Amino acid sequence: MWWLPPCFHGGNAAKGEGRDHFDPNPVSPAAASARSMSTATSSTITAPSGSDLTGSINASDMSADSIQRPQQYPSFADRPANLRVFTYAELRAATRNLSRSLMLGEGGFGCVYRGAIKVNAGAGDETPPPMEVAVKHLNRNGLQGHKEWLTEVNVLGIVDHPNLVKLVGYCADDDERGAQRLLVYEYMPNRSVDDHLSGRAIGTTLSWPMRLRVALDAAKGLKYLHEDMDFQIIFRDLKTSNILLDEDWNAKLSDFGMAREGPTEGLTHVSTAVTMKLLHSDTLYHVL
């Protein structure tokens, strides 16, 4: 079963620790007509133990038509308190109509743009400056992109760690061109580790002490996912292009589209399909 993003209520995922969640005054359900996403695949995501999940959709019951015209579910308005729901119009405005001059990256999943969103001020407070964000606009065609969009909302909507990229919010709108699926992340100005190692980030190099720090930061993020929560999340896509650097050069894991829940109680392992590119994997991994 696919678990809808709004069914995740931001709670205390870490063992024995209270955590503050980002809550930039989410818009009301009436202001953002968010709709559910379904996919015609037999893959499943189950509810992590200890989480507050309610309601689900059986993805195998959905037709391909439902990808382009998602069915609306009442539970979608009951979104996580720590995620903000955006309209497609809001995110187009935030990225200057998805301007190519603001494009940060492009891949099979779609494009990522730099943008700025408004942050609502509290009563009597001055209007805060816009927040810089990275907006991922997923391709409308293909089941895999929709599946990964939903997985990212499910996972990043309930985790909170300084070495994991923060998901600010998401968009699940329909327009005349079909379903629009977007993700809004905190902006990481120092790009990815891969950009620095490959020379695409001109003018900067990663010293060996910095590389060690990056490795330790990535390990801390993985440890949190694997050991420090009431349930386990298996990242499954660790590579230098998925390790981003913030303004202070702290490393954070990104791109949780391949993630899945770890072993349930009483089990010691989870079997998964190969997800990494052959170029990055050990030959024996495929032989065995």
TrEMBL record:
Residues 14-74 are annotated as: Disordered. Residues 98-288 form the Protein kinase domain. It holds the Pfam family PK_Tyr_Ser-Thr. It catalyses: L-seryl-[protein] + ATP = O-phospho-L-seryl-[protein] + ADP + H(+); L-threonyl-[protein] + ATP = O-phospho-L-threonyl-[protein] + ADP + H(+). Its EC number is 2.7.11.1. GO terms for molecular function: ATP binding; protein serine/threonine kinase activity. Keywords: ATP-binding, Kinase, Nucleotide-binding, Serine/threonine-protein kinase, Transferase. InterPro entries: Kinase-like_dom_sf (IPR011009), Plant_Ser_Thr_Prot_Kinase (IPR050823), Prot_kinase_dom (IPR000719), Protein_kinase_ATP_BS (IPR017441), Ser-Thr/Tyr_kinase_cat_dom (IPR001245). Residues 52-74 have a biased composition (Polar residues). Residues 24-51 have a biased composition (Low complexity). ATP binds at residue 136. This is non-specific serine/threonine protein kinase. It comes from Aegilops tauschii subsp. strangulata (Goatgrass).
